[in-house]
Amino acid sequence: MGPGEEGAAGRRQYGRASLSFTDFIAIDWSGQAVERPKGLAVAHARVGTAAPELIDRPWSRRDILEWLRHLADRGVRALIGLDLSPAFPFRDEGAYFPGWKRSPPDGPSLWRLVDELSSADPHLAATSFVSHSVARRHFRQRGDCGDLFPPGRGRFRVCEHGQELLRLSPYSCFNLVGASQVGKSSLTGMRVLHQLRGKLGLWPFDSAPEQGPVLVEIYTALPARLAGMRKGTSKIRDPQALDALLDAFDSKPHLPLSRYDDHATDAILSAAWLRHAADDKALWNPPALTPELARTEGWTFGVP
């Protein structure tokens, strides 16, 4: 199979195969370099209309990695959304890291490089990668803006431009500064994706399996916007607001939570949306998703 053909095959297969998911899982991710980040949250929905349930426990990234492996071993037909970017921009410069001989040619190679260079970091963090003498030149970090980080907001993937057309506010994965940055989450997620290779496939980098779980990239602000949350409001922190948004995805009201932070509510609403959207074959075949992008940048599920 030649370069790009695997991703293209995956998109065509999703267009014609029966998806038939039984479980829908949304994971709000975190790049915090501690064992149990407060931002990790997991919600689980099943076929039907019952509201997703928050799997409320002090998760670590290692816990989630092992839990996903267990789902794969059991063959659970789950659609699993990860709130992170699985790759850096590629198309704009023809490389993730222009001028670096070790710059990988595709997503899986990128995940392997990040994991290898960060192998000594505890808790599946990626501090060593962004401290690497060459890699760091591409990132904006607190007190250290690399000389290859372009002026302005930084580089963006093609699907992130699509997010902007949906009136979302994506951040460059090369930006590691600020409360809304996603770069640290994405880098730690790449380590997990590498360690899951051979167990779970990530759309659209991989062909669609006929059985077992499937991973997709999600942007948790998208379900909220689709459910009617107005632009400028990004947090769901009370039960009434959560139930009103769940209703837009044909979900019954949720069971009371012990906490109403935006990580928990984002995960619950995203799981309901995944169940609502999973059979929309247009979402699995966005017109702008080329074989090259499927191999290098990936795509955010739900972005047309």
N-to-C order of helices and strands: HEEEHEHHEEHHEEHHHH
Alpha plus pi helix count: 10
Low-confidence stretches: 1-17
* Alpha-beta classification: alpha/beta
> What characteristic shape results from the CA principal axes?
globular
Distance between the termini: 27 Å
The proportion of residues in beta strands is 5-15%
What is Rg?
A: 18 Å
Mean pLDDT figure: 91
For the biggest sheet, the summary is: 6 strands, mixed
Counted beta strands:
8
Strand order of the largest sheet: 3-2-1-4-8-7
Number of domains: 1
Query: In which range does the helix fraction lie?
Result: 25-40%
Can you describe what's shown?
Strand 2 and strand 3 form a beta hairpin. The chain has ten helices and eight strands. The chain has one domain. The longest helix is centred in the C-terminal third of the chain and has 16 residues. It has a six-stranded mixed beta sheet with strand order 3-2-1-4-8-7. The chain is α/β, with parallel strands linked by helices. Helices cover 33% and strands 10% of the residues. It is globular and about 50 Å long. This is DUF429 domain-containing protein. It comes from Sphingomonas xinjiangensis.
